[in-house]
User: Fold this.
Amino acid sequence: MTEPPGRRERKKAATRQKIADAALRLFLERGYDAVGIRDVAAEADVAVTTLFSHFASKEALVFEQDEDFEQRLIRAVTDRGPHEPLIPALRREIQALVRHCTAAEAAPIWRMIDGSPALRKYEESMRLRHAESLAAAITADPGLPLTMTAGRTIARFVIDAYSLAREEAEPQAAVDEIFRMIEAAWEVARSA
Assistant:
C-alpha cells in the first residue's frame, strides 16, 4: 500500500495545480501567444522561478498532465495481470485517455493547441517521448520477448492511436478500428 503524500508534497502539488489553472485560464481568455510567463506567474501569485520549478517551459503549462499520461501508459504494461494480454490493456488505457480528451470541456484547449505551431511541435515531441517510454516498458517485460524495433513500432502505433482518435467524429469507434490494426501488427511482431 502506498503512503499518502506528506504535507510538503501536497503543498507542491497544490502550487503546481494553481499555476496550471491560472495559465490555462489566461491562455483561453487572451490567446496562447498573448500571454507571457510573467503574466501566468502574477495570476497564480507565484514567482517566475517558482513557476519554472514546476514547469520547464510555457508549452508545458498547457500539457500539465503530460507526466501522468506517460505513467498511465507505462502502468498499462507493467501493472496488468500475469496472464492479461498487452494489447487489450493498452486499448483500455487509450480509450480512457481519449474519453478524457474529447470531453466537451477539452474542445477549447485542443482548438488552442491546433492553432499554435509551438504547441503542435511540443505535442509531437511529447508523443515521441511517450512512445519511447512505452517501448521501453514493453521490451523490458520478460513475458513479451520482442526486439526493441518491434516494441518501438507497437508503442508508436499506440501513441498515434490516441492522437488520431481524438480528431475523429466518433473517437471511440476510431480507437476500436485502429486497435484492430495494432492487434494485427502485434501478431506479426510476436511471430517474427
Remarks:
- The longest helix spans residues 7-30.
- The mean pLDDT is 91.
- Residues 12 and 49 are 14 Å apart (CA to CA).
- The chain is about 75% helix and 0% strand.
